[in-house]
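2024-03-11 09:14:02 INFO queue: dequeued item Cytochrome b, len=422
2024-03-11 09:14:02 INFO validating residues
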Amino acid sequence: MQFKQNLLLKSNTFEIFSKSFSEVSFKNAYFMASFILKGLRWNKNYLLAFIDNHVIHYPTPINLTYAWSFGSSAGICLVIQILSGIFLAMHYTPHIDLAFSSVEHIMRDVNNGWLIRYIHANGASMFFIVVYCHIFRGLYYGSYIQPRQLLWCSGVLIFILMMATAFMGYVLPWGQMSFWGATVITSLVTAIPVIGQPIVDWLWGGFTINNATLNRFFSLHFFLPFIIAGITIIHLALLHKDGSNNPLGVDSGVDKIPFYPYFFVKDLFAFFCFLFLFGTFVFYFPNSLGHPDNYIPADPMSTPAHIVPEWYFLPFYAILRSIPDKFGGVAAMGGSLVVLFLIPFTNTSEIRSTTFRPIFKIFYWLLVADFLILGWIGQKPVKDVFVLVGQIATVFYFLFFVVLIPLIGVIETKLAHLKTNE
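2024-03-11 09:14:37 INFO prediction written
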């Protein structure tokens, strides 16, 4: 009897405790759920407002042409490269004895591995095509002129990081051109007096290209695209800070329309045109932009007859080869990139668009031709005639950015003021 009373007492106590605990737990759970939902609602509204302000209702000059679609296409290329690279990294082995075989494994054994690899390899070329067009468009329409100096500089920084990422990615298949390209390009650092050789040994992780080098290149190649994505966000923030430029090169004021749907549809059409070109290379000419020697496993004892980088490096490679001195060539190649940062600060013109700059327009198209000539010279063997043409093209390249941009700006400004005074 006593046992039953104790059991009943404990049961009532437990029931009271459970009921109290349930009420407290329910109140706490309700409070937490309300807090989380309110937080999500605030974040949702904030996120939607951000997208609305910077994508949907972003004020865009009404007279933008398809030349302004290269920026959005470049962003899509970056996303394609990151996604395809992640899938390739799942099957790639960064080891000098297995890297080449792992690439062949991706091509032969992985479901649609050939497609992922061709998308990634040709996507790099398409990325550079779009970015080169984007740069030359900005140069033509004066997108570097105040107040967009930082916007231009951030874009140049993205371009340099792209080059570093692409170079390290070209080494990963560990074919003949990968190995010897890495050997030649990294050895250029030895041109730096005193500290050059220690830096190269540090880059290699030894006294020659080895497994540590391949692992470092793979790690950096995987990591740098996310840095590029972060700087791209900064690039967009700087763009939206002062607004987009336009073909006339004048402030649009209130003569703007929302980005969506007008320019969204225009960019979408440009993307499908780009996708058609991209698909043509991926499905019909997947190896046309590569080098056949890279389908031969890396052999340190056999040097290829002609070592050339990927086509998008050729203009800068031609500048490197145009100067016989090793240190001078390295300095010239580095200077050819650094000089791009100086354009906003050496410009003296009060007119943005080259459409209204007849003198500058002539030299602009000469620069385009000069850049193409440098690309052609970069793939040619080192012979006297090609070296001479490369030297002339290199001189004009630096002359344009260092001398002609400020000089032509002064001349055109004086002529414009003279015409106004008349």
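2024-03-11 09:14:37 INFO annotate: The first helix runs from residue 2 to 56.
2024-03-11 09:14:38 INFO item closed
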